[in-house]
Amino acid sequence: MLDVALLPGEYAMCRLPAGAVVPPQVWGALAGGDVVTVSWTADGVSLICPAERAPAGADLETEWRCLRLVGPLDAAVTGTLAALVDPLARARVNVVAFSTYDTDHVLVPAVRLADATSALERAGHRVHK
Questions:
Q1: Beta bridge partners of 114
Q2: Are the CB atoms for 66 and 11 separated by under 8 Å?
Q3: Is the peptide bond before 87 cis (omega within 30 degrees of 0)?
Q4: What is the pLDDT of residue 125?
Q5: pLDDT tens per residue across span 8-53
Q6: Could you tell me which of 46, 47, 54 has the C-alpha nearest to residue 10?
Q7: Predicted pLDDT at 54
Q8: pLDDT, mean of residues 106-114
Q9: In angstroms, rounded to a whole number, what is the distance separating the alpha carbons of residues 52 and 25?
Q10: What angle, 0 to 180 degrees and rounded to 10, lies between the N-to-C axes of helices 113-122 and 80-90?
Q11: 3 state DSSP class of 46
Q12: CB burial class (10 A; 0-12, 13-18, 19+) of residue 76?
């Protein structure tokens, strides 16, 4: 059984051109539960952030909710992300997964949040809303 926390507010997936600088508003002082993740590739800069922090001019998809495995998790533990994603896949809920040093996260479409939390609870996980 995993403990899963629903983070407050909606999240956005954003894409900026390759070499772009991530604007300071994205980083700012994060609220207690907020998370921002950035990936740089030759094709562009991808970031996930609270929707209200999404940079102007970025290609973006909004209306995602973020679920976080309550951690920190030991790096030697295996299967935690699969234990989160598998029930969501069986429920046909789209996910975007990412990890930090301490834990794993998944984004689910806001319109499918009830389906996602129900699927996780059926799998034996506790969802803290």
A1: none
A2: yes
A3: no
A4: 94
A5: 999 999 999 998 988 888 887 777 778 999 999 999 999 999 999 9
A6: 54
A7: 93
A8: 97
A9: 9
A10: 120
A11: strand
A12: exposed
Residue-by-residue DSSP string for 106-122: EEEEGGGHHHHHHHHHH
- Angstrom distances, CA of residue 64 to CA of 6, 20, 42, 72, 93: 11, 23, 26, 23, 12
Q: Which domains does the chain have, with CATH numbers?
A: 3-128 (3.30.2130.10)
The pair of three-digit structure tokens given for residue 66, joined into one six-digit string: 């973020």
Q: Which tens digits make up the pLDDT trace of 80-98?
A: 889 899 999 999 999 999 9
120 vs 112: CA distance, rounded Å: 12
What is d(CA 35, CA 14) in angstroms, rounded to the nearest whole number? 14
Provide the H-helix boundaries in 65-122. Answer: 80-90, 113-122
